[in-house]
Write a structure and sequence with these properties.
Layout lengths: L1 E5 L11 H15 L3 E7 L7 E4 L2 E6 L2 H6 L1 H8 L3 E5 L16 E4 L14 H12 L1 H4 L4 E4 L2 H10 L6 E3 L19 E4 L10 H12 L5 E5 L5 H10 L6 E5 L3 H9 L3 E4 L8 H8 L4 E4 L4 H4 L6 E4 L4 H12 L3 H11 L4 H28 L1
Parallel strand pairs: 1-2, 1-5, 2-4, 5-6, 6-7, 7-8, 9-10, 9-12, 10-11, 12-13, 13-14
Antiparallel strand pairs: 3-4
Helix pairs in contact: 1-14, 7-12, 10-13
């Protein structure tokens, strides 16, 4: 099969996160099954316009507007058997209206929950309204999503349950694995630096943990719109010497940071899944965070971490203090929990769905041709 995967960013983008890593891991494994996988995303400063990565081909469009406008031409030229529209950034490419006979919409999460503070009120209304048109835009397409919450959200949008396929991501257990026990009290944040993820809460958490008498520090990974806001929060709290900012890191560097950390913190108001919590668990690092959609499926409260009501910083700090104080069972539970998720199983489920969609499309095309 020839598979065309459309996404706003790729995993090498400086602001790439869990969604982009998921697309990369699935693409490389779909190509292992003998498929020709072509991914199209947007360029970023100093990026290559095209390259081959782990068995699939990546094309980067020069700007976001061209990225959307040029899709009918791409579909016409490549004639893919299946188009995957990755909806990590709300706006679809309208491939279903541009001559593509078959496709899969990859629904990450309901953006209506997370747009507050990221865009202006009018844009928020526009994008939230656009989500409600998914049943019309993707009228004959299948949907893939990762969590039970997102399945329910799609049904509320009007998508029939028979067209929704829940395929959780995996974790690379050869890369993300436990290291030597950490002697320090490092708290790690690598959940994305965007407004709806409230990364500044990690700074507030650190302040409370230190108040509990623990000599802790915080490492913040990545870049994003909220980076300066987090730095300001650290300065305001007088914690500049205890909060370290890494910028974009490779998977290898991320694993080293995880292995030397005691706690992973997630402060988002909602997630589609939470790949970072799963990757932390594979390294034996418990996650603390808020009891919100997505995260409450990747963290087993009291078993692989702790979940508290949104905004309860004191409860979050108490959870971190308990883990740093020494909860070896939690670390073992994390590693065991992560073993049920593997990329090969996820990719196989995707491959079967792509084959089904491609076959049904050919049948439908033959019928329309004969009539």
């Amino acid at each position: 099969m020839r598979i065309l995967w459309l996404s706003e960013r790729d995993h090498l983008h400086p602001r790439g996160g869990g969604a982009e890593r998921t697309a990369h891991e699935l693409s490389r494994r779909l190509s292992m099954f003998g498929n020709q996988v072509i991914r199209v995303s947007c360029a970023f400063p100093d990026s290559q316009p095209s390259l081959d990565l782990d068995g699939y081909h990546l094309i980067r469009d020069p700007d976001p507007i061209f990225h959307h406008v040029a899709r009918p031409l791409t579909i016409h030229n490549l004639r893919p058997d299946v188009v995957i529209e990755d909806l990590a950034h709300v706006v679809p490419w309208l491939s279903s209206l541009a001559g593509s006979r078959s496709g899969i919409a990859y629904f990450r999460h309901l953006h209506a929950r997370t747009l507050g503070g990221q865009v202006g009120p009018s844009t928020r209304v526009l994008l939230s309204t656009l989500e409600r048109f998914y049943p019309l835009i993707f009228r004959n397409w299948e949907f893939v999503t990762e969590s039970r919450t997102s399945v329910a959200d799609l049904q509320r949008l009007g998508i029939e349950r028979s067209r929704i396929h829940r395929i959780p991501p995996g974790v690379d257990l050869t890369t993300f694995c436990p290291g030597p026990p950490s002697a320090g009290a490092r708290i790690l944040y690598f959940g994305g630096l965007r407004r709806y993820k409230y990364p500044e809460h990690a700074v507030l958490l650190l302040n409370r943990v230190i108040s509990n008498g623990i000599d802790a520090h915080l490492v913040v990974v990545g870049t994003g719109p909220s980076l300066e806001h987090v730095k300001t929060a650290a300065r305001y709290a007088g914690l500049e010497e205890r909060v370290y900012f890494t910028g974009h890191v490779t998977d290898k560097e991320l694993v080293r940071l995880l292995q030397s950390s005691r706690v992973n913190v997630q402060t988002s108001i909602a997630e589609g899944w939470c790949l970072s919590a799963l990757e932390a668990a594979a390294c034996g690092v418990p996650t603390i965070g808020y009891d919100v959609p997505g995260l409450n499926e990747t963290v087993v409260d009291g078993n692989t971490g702790f979940l508290v009501p949104f905004g309860h910083i004191d409860a979050l700090a108490d959870a971190a203090s308990r883990i740093i104080g020494g909860m070896v069972d939690l670390q073992r539970n994390c590693v065991q929990w992560s073993k049920q998720y593997d990329w090969l199983s996820s990719a196989r489920a995707w491959n079967e769905l792509c084959q089904q969609v491609s076959k049904e499309s050919r049948v439908e095309y033959s019928r329309s041709y004969l009539t």
